[in-house]
Amino acid sequence: MTLRLERWQDGDLALLEAANTPEMTRHLGGPETADQLADRQARYLRGWETGESRMFRIVDGSDVAGSIGWWSTRWRGEKVHETGWFVLPSAQGRGIAAAAVPLLVDDVLRAGRLPLLVAFPNVENAASNRVCERSGFTHAGIEDFPFRGTTLHCSVWTMPLTYPPRPARRSA
Fold first, then answer.
1. Which pLDDT tens digit goes with each residue over 114-151?
2. 164 to each of 42, 111, 114, how far by Cα in Å?
3. Is the peptide bond before 22 cis (omega within 30 degrees of 0)?
4. What are the structural domains of the chain?
5. pTM more than 0.85
6. Which residues share a beta bridge with 78?
7. Can you give 24-75 as a three-state secondary structure string?
8. What is the pLDDT of residues 144-170, one digit of tens each?
9. Which strands make up the sheet holding 138-147, listed edge to edge?
């Protein structure tokens, strides 16, 4: 596997649309409307300009396999970096998300500035919870979060960030 992260671009709305299926969004309360996807696309592009977030497409060889990113948020009264990802069905089961997480951590260490990275996969999302466990996150409990008009029951995973960063990884 030759995996790399590429900066989110104007043309990546199609990737959001490909992931906006009932199966892919079942742990997030269901698909978004076209307007919600357009707003998400604009946020992903704007985040690069403001420095508050960085979204990437995950590329395996020449194929776009999914997306991963990080953004600044508040959790338990503290400002932290949060991460999330998805892998398209055609690329699932090959360890792509687990291989993308260390590449993302390298980017957070270079561009971020907060001491903690958190992930909040739905407790029923076994694959994402395994990715967190295998990627060096520590399970910190279960919490409920309001999200897009519903409440998500999530595992809380944390990873302390140590600065300065390690040298960047080139591929996984």
1. 999 999 999 999 999 999 999 999 999 999 998 888 89
2. 31, 11, 12
3. no
4. 3-160 (3.40.630.30)
5. yes
6. 75
7. CCHHHCCCCCHHHHHHHHHHHHHHHHHCCEEEEEEEECCEEEEEEEEEEEEE
8. 998 888 899 999 999 999 866 555 555
9. 3-7, 53-60, 63-75, 78-87, 116-119, 150-160, 138-147
